Amino acid sequence: ARVDKAGYKHFMAKEIAEQPTVLADALRGYLDGDTISLPGEPLDFTKIERLTLVACGTAFYACLTAKYWFEQLAGLPVEVDVASEFRYREPPITAHTVALFVSQSGETADTLAALRYCKDKADKIVSVVNVAESSIARESDLALPIHAGVEVGVASTKAFTCQLNVLLLLALKAAVDRGRMTPEALAETLASLRALPGVLNAAMDRSDDINQAARQIAEARDVLFLGRGLMYPLALEGALKLKEISYIHAEAYASGELKHGPIALIDKSVPVVVMAPRDALFDKTVSNMQEVLARGGKVLLITDAAGAAEAGQDVWKTIILPEVPSILSPLLYAIPAQLLAYHTAIAKGTDVDQPRNLAKSVTVE
Ligand code: G6P
After folding, report:
1. Which atom of ligand 1 lies nearest, measured to the CA of 105?
2. Closest atom of ligand 1 relative to the 244 alpha carbon
3. Looking at this predicted complex, what is its ipTM?
4. Ligand 1 pocket, mutate which of 104, 129, 146, 161 (most atoms under 8 A from CB)
5. pTM
6. pLDDT digits (tens, 9 = 90+) for 116-166
7. What is the C-alpha separation between 7 and 10, in angstroms, rounded?
8. Which phi and psi (to 5°) does residue 5 adopt?
9. Backbone phi, then psi, for 351, in 5-degree steps?
10. Could you tell me which of 259, 183, 242 has the C-alpha nearest to residue 234?
């Protein structure tokens, strides 16, 4: 189907804005009342001992986020790797392993090769894809659509949150199957997920604040992103988005790694984006943030109202998002990460939808 910009200046802006709607639709496709129902072949997590998650680029960061979910919610050991490394590592695939591949296009050469490597080794090949007729979908035992609709912008936005959505539903199903979550607790989480589109719209309302920060970030040569736990993969995704479309050097670190290297880079010219909802790890992240502030670093803190009240005093700027249950925070914090990259690229005048040297789908090695 042909898609147009529907009045937006860029496909990326349209695709960012579409997220509340596409996520609501995608969620409906996976729920039968308060039960998670997967299309196609059944997937019984009681028989699975290990999950191997493989992808490239943004889809890899969705996998990294999912590792935290599967481990914490379902107690399921997870291995995660980028496809280009995985495929040549000769990784042993132990019995009762499900190999799961995440790909927007379903055509990424390295991811497809990694899938083929697992074919006669894993118990089951599952894929999470946007393009249902793709090679990766066809070669899987079970292909789970993310229902993001056509994504045109080279920098992935709505496909990322829709990948997160399906991966979270899988982790929740695994938690229930494995007796780690009661149906009541699941129903409660699903209610929060159903309410998420409204929350994402509230996050979109922070666009002007983010734009103001972006105008100054556009002047920077290097930007550092920090996060812990579920916010670590989000920090990586934020840095990836920024470098892809604004060409500013951006790096992400797990907050706890700050002292093992990146702290040497901190001075007043390096903006540091700290992603930290007021969750169980908040105090730890804030103490890392203090180390940045003590060295004159310019901190952009992305948090919620409780987090801002506790730690927003000495920072350069604070972006305040609604509060959500911690496990849903990746879906919410993706929005400011995307908007920050978008507005920074606009301020720099770069080609947002067609960044130099990058392709939407990489079908060569
Ligand atoms: C390219 C795109 C990225 C994407 C990655 C993986 O690098 O520019 O946006 O995340 O490929 O693509 P896939 O289609 O496998 O998700």
Report:
1. 14
2. 8
3. 0.97
4. 104
5. 0.97
6. 999 999 999 999 999 999 999 999 999 999 999 999 999 999 999 999 999
7. 9
8. -80, -5
9. -85, 100
10. 242
